[in-house]
Known about the structure:
single chain; mainly beta; Pectate Lyase C-like; 5-stranded parallel β-barrel; two-stranded antiparallel sheet; 4 helices; 32 strands; about 50% strand; disordered N terminus
Amino acid sequence: xxxxxxxxxxxxxxxxxxxxxxxxxxxxxxxxxxxxxxxxxxxxxxxxxxxxxxxxxxxxxxxxxxxxxxxxxxxxxxxxxxxxxxxxxxxxxxxxxxxxxxxxxxxxxxxxxxxxxxxxxxxxxxxxxxxxxxxxxxxxxxxxxxxxxxxxxxxxxxxxxxxxxxxxxxxxxxxxxxxxxxxxxxxxxxxxxxxxxxxxxxxxxxxxxxxxxxxxxxxxxxxxxxxxxxxxxxxxxxxxxxxxxxxxxxxxxxxxxxxxxxxxxxxxxxxxxxxxxxxxxxxxxxxxxxxxxxxxxxxxxxxxxxxxxxxxxxxxxxxxxxxxxxxxxxxxxxxxxxxxxxxxxxxxxxxxxxxxxxxxxxxxxxxxxxxxxxxxxxxxxxxxxxxxxxxxxxxxxxxxxxxxxxxxxxxxxxxxxxxxxxxxxxxxxxxxxxxxxxxxxxxxxxxxx
Length: 449
């Protein structure tokens, strides 16, 4: 009997939560707490897992590493504050992003971990603008070359069983949250407010599987919700997204640009996209990926500069040094339905256009279905605008402006497509536009009842 009681006591001890104050953390916003927080995480992991609790207060830290069966729990008014000193960060999984910059430093990292979490009503604040202000005092290179040294807020790498809920993520030094080659991810009820420096993507899903994202509110300086595959080794697949509010200085919902492994079986629904400075929905494969079985439905958009871009291209970039260049991929079996959008009058394309679709010669986009779509546009196109030739830009970065500044259709322009279904797609003009609503170039098997 005594032995059983002792064993039960040991089990309780092993599951005990740890308050970081008890490991020496100081909640003054200026004391560097990296070692104290890491000590709490390590001890929690070593004794069987549980919660590492951040009570109310401001806890400054550099890179901390989350371990198996550990959940960081930030209580109300708790703030995990990123250091403004670059020397306080580590890059535990280096890679190159889509513009060719080496990246990977981060505030909160998990590598090859299982059953981890980030939860609570508190805040993780990367102090991105303050990091940049200090960084540029000593690094005089152009911004496009130096930004990669600044830390992501959260990096989850090759993990299984990840839950992120309730927390607010603010002001990353680069990408806000990056999930790489991980499985069984559940993200729910989080808020992101990450603006102030370049490349502040909101939620980045990179080669992950069995992902659920629900009821989140994202305001980001770069793409709000973005799916990537920076490695050819693991596809993005089996993903369900619903109930998001998305504001972005770039795209609201995006697949690519980094696109080496496949994107398959992805469903996105019931989202509101607003005040984007770029595209509302952008589906892009330019580095060899297969994109197929994608459904985006029940979407509203307000003040988006260009509503949709679909691009199959042949940039064929490589982002991990050990991997090889690939062949042109495919974009197949994509359905977009039940969308109502109001485009911004001020757009990258002048005058604005609604939907751009283009493959490259010899590589068609296939089986693309557009159903029940209404887009309101500014109008203003001329007869001369209707004659413009759009560049192929076969190996270029797949941006809306790459194909501009003018498109010959005010509504839908499609090129190099086989099997395009257009059902109940209409465009409402605020002013007269002398371009046609639909222009099809090298489009085979058009279904337009």
